[in-house]
Amino acid sequence: RLKCLGKSQCMAFSIPVYDYYAILYSYRKNKEQRPLVLLHDVRSFLTDIKRYLISNPHLGLVKKIQKIVNYSSTVDVEGAVDDALDKLVLYPLHSLIYKCLVIDYTRSGQLKDLEEAIALAKTKTNQELGIRDTVVPPDAESLSLIKGHFAQLQRTYSPYFKLKELLAAVTKIYQSIDDGSSKAIGADDFLPLLVYSIVHCDFVAADIEAQYIDGLLDPALLVGEGGYYLTTLISAVQVVFSMKRKETSLPSISDLQVVVNNWHLMVGINATFLGNEDSNKRLKKPDDDVVLHKTLHVPPAMTARNLCHMITRKFNIEAPDDYCLHVVANGIAHPLEPNECPQLVKMDLLTQFSATAFYFSYQQIKKEDNVSSQTGENILPE
């Protein structure tokens, strides 16, 4: 059905599709463009077109999908639309996007650096890789299966199926440890084991694949386990890189966890919740000042609008249109524009403040916030 809509020149759906292909064609001719910009643009296009397809009553797409596949919930329908858009949009674009990433990584020298870092890491002992004496790393048979998942991850064009292959590799790592170690491992021990697996599986494309998934997957799917292990993969690659830069043993386990946390944002959520879906979560009543603090996976290209949407869905926020994301610096809350990227804002603020001098807050919109937004006033400190 989506293919028919895309091929029909007179349909409202086909117009943005053809316009977007024109933009991509111009991107191929412009050598100044960065791959992360392309990833951000493609993800934004997929989000916008999915919203249009689901919300447009004239298309009647939701009812048609429910009738064909017998889905009843909106979440299942969104998944079906995501899958169809991946086939319609990402499948023909996969080679272009991947080529742009490879060219950028090759030009910057990162691909060669990672290859050399992996070769260097192979000369290190398990202890130098951060693996404790009581933990037995995956054996040759397990590494062969893990490598198979990494290979399949590289073959598929869908960021969703890439993430599934990553989680399958993670599961195999845990299973191999359960078979070989005297006791189950905790999260602190997993990162060195993922580093070990990347190194001994020669997963040179790990960083490229992580950026592809991070940039193109629906942000709502990066909540929870998927987002955590994708962040761990990105962190593991940075750990391998650090070996070549320093040509020393890896940082301590506590240092490795800091790397993981750097890819998350701590967000204070000051809002009224409709329901308590998390047994550890404190509900905020309208007449108290309880603020829920949560660490969320926020990719560099995720916008404030998408982060707010993720918070709304994850925590079941009442009246989400009354709230927006703010950055609080020097005790003053500044609302972010919907298209601003919190991670980029964070990087900019770190050049002016210490990491403890500001934080992000999801809170109610004030009247003066709307005035600043309408007048185009710069709400961030200079």
Automatic annotation (TrEMBL):
<dbReference type="InterPro" id="IPR037191">
    <property type="entry name" value="VPS9_dom_sf"/>
</dbReference>
<dbReference type="InterPro" id="IPR045046">
    <property type="entry name" value="Vps9-like"/>
</dbReference>
<dbReference type="GO" id="GO:0016192">
    <property type="term" value="P:vesicle-mediated transport"/>
</dbReference>
<protein>
    <recommendedName>
        <fullName>VPS9 domain-containing protein</fullName>
    </recommendedName>
</protein>
<dbReference type="InterPro" id="IPR003123">
    <property type="entry name" value="VPS9"/>
</dbReference>
<feature type="domain" description="Ras-associating">
    <location>
        <begin position="294"/>
        <end position="365"/>
    </location>
</feature>
<feature type="domain" description="VPS9">
    <location>
        <begin position="108"/>
        <end position="249"/>
    </location>
</feature>
<dbReference type="GO" id="GO:0030139">
    <property type="term" value="C:endocytic vesicle"/>
</dbReference>
<dbReference type="GO" id="GO:0005829">
    <property type="term" value="C:cytosol"/>
</dbReference>
<dbReference type="Pfam" id="PF00788">
    <property type="entry name" value="RA"/>
</dbReference>
<dbReference type="GO" id="GO:0031267">
    <property type="term" value="F:small GTPase binding"/>
</dbReference>
<dbReference type="InterPro" id="IPR029071">
    <property type="entry name" value="Ubiquitin-like_domsf"/>
</dbReference>
<dbReference type="InterPro" id="IPR000159">
    <property type="entry name" value="RA_dom"/>
</dbReference>
<dbReference type="GO" id="GO:0005085">
    <property type="term" value="F:guanyl-nucleotide exchange factor activity"/>
</dbReference>
<dbReference type="Pfam" id="PF23268">
    <property type="entry name" value="RIN1"/>
</dbReference>
<dbReference type="Pfam" id="PF02204">
    <property type="entry name" value="VPS9"/>
</dbReference>
<dbReference type="GO" id="GO:0007165">
    <property type="term" value="P:signal transduction"/>
</dbReference>
